[in-house]
Amino acid sequence: MRSDAWTHILHRVVDVTAFVEQAARTTQLEAEVAAQTLEVRDANERLRQAKLRLDHQIDVCSRQSELLRNVLLAVPLPVALLKGAGHRIELQNIAMRQLLADAEAIDADLASSARGLHKVLPLLDRVYHDGEVISVRRLAIVWPGDASGETGTRYYDLHVHPYLASEAGVEGVILAAVDVTAHVEGEASLKAALSSLEDERDLRDQFVLALSHDLRTPLSAASMGSHVISRKADDAGEVRRISGRVLANLERIDHMLRDLLDANRITAGGKLTLSVVSCDLREVVEQVVDDLSTVHGDRFIVRAPVSLPGRWDCATVRRALENLCVNAISYGAPGRPVTVTLADSGAETVIEVHNEGRPIPIDEQSAIFTAHFRRPTHENSARRGWGLGLTLVRGLVEAHGGTVEVESAEGQGTVFRIRLPRQ
């Protein structure tokens, strides 16, 4: 090759730094995009897995919530979830719905609509504002009147808990109520029964004391008389006199025991045996008045027909009349007359014994015929009888098919009225 064939050498320089650098950056970006793509893919997968877990948790919570709701609705005790300061009813079971219906809660805001819950609302406010748990036993709630206008008092054990649904604090309260009215009323009835038994025990104790005292006197007199007779056997007149006193005391004891046995038979619901014969009630009244006048003086007034015949157990009628007359003397105005009135009304005969003095209170008039009953005003009186006299009167009269009643008023005195059938 000839040396003169190339005369010049052309040299061109092109700066490709930017291209190279761009290519490098592109490669780097591609790597970064690829890496970010992988990260996004991993993040999406994590999000998908998280969503699956969240959906599962939501499903579990939903099932649990539905289960708890169903359990709440099935609980037989009143339970409710109340939201906000006004205690808006968020959830309530059937028992609570019925309870609030009694309170006439006509809308969902318990604080403004519920009647009868004025004692409950302060408890709800305390739990809502302070977050404390409150339990109250036997809270009396008076519900509004029904169609008849009658109100009803019920007793409840209340349990109030705060409802913490978020980090914000108390959002509401959970109220549960237990109706314990039956327990409260049962305890009250039991206490009343125990009190009645204690009163009856006290009355029986008083009765035993009175009985012992009353029997001791004639027994002692009869015993002393029998000893005197043994020392005066040679004095026939004195023996007869003392024997008469002994017999009289023994008859008095017999009379007491007969009254006691008959009164107990009447109290137990037993029947008395009558010996019905023809007799004149006018004569019976006069005998009773004559006998009592020897002890109490001329205080009796008799108002009766000349004769009032019929068929009765006159000994039994006499016992009833004696009890009423002795009662009139014992509890009537001192020194004032006792009036015994007989009247014939055709099919029945009416016997009335009236005394003056303080009246018998209305609330005691039906109880005075109860065994061992003593009027409170006479509990500390010296006239401590057995409390069986009027019980005996009632039984003796009812054995004849008759009735006995009392009327007593201020300024009019007291009248015991016996109604006996003529036959």
From TrEMBL:
Keywords: Coiled coil, Kinase, Phosphoprotein, Transferase, Two-component regulatory system. Pfam families: HATPase_c, HisKA. It is an enzyme of class 2 (transferase). PROSITE patterns: HIS_KIN (PS50109). GO terms for molecular function: kinase activity. Its EC number is 2.7.13.3. Residues 26-53 form a coiled coil. Transmembrane segments: none annotated. InterPro entries: HATPase_C_sf, HATPase_dom, His_kinase_dom, HisK_dim/P_dom, HisK_dim/P_sf, Sensor_HK_Regulatory, Sig_transdc_His_kin-like_C. It catalyses: ATP + protein L-histidine = ADP + protein N-phospho-L-histidine. Residues 210-423 form the Histidine kinase domain. This is histidine kinase. It comes from Lysobacter korlensis.
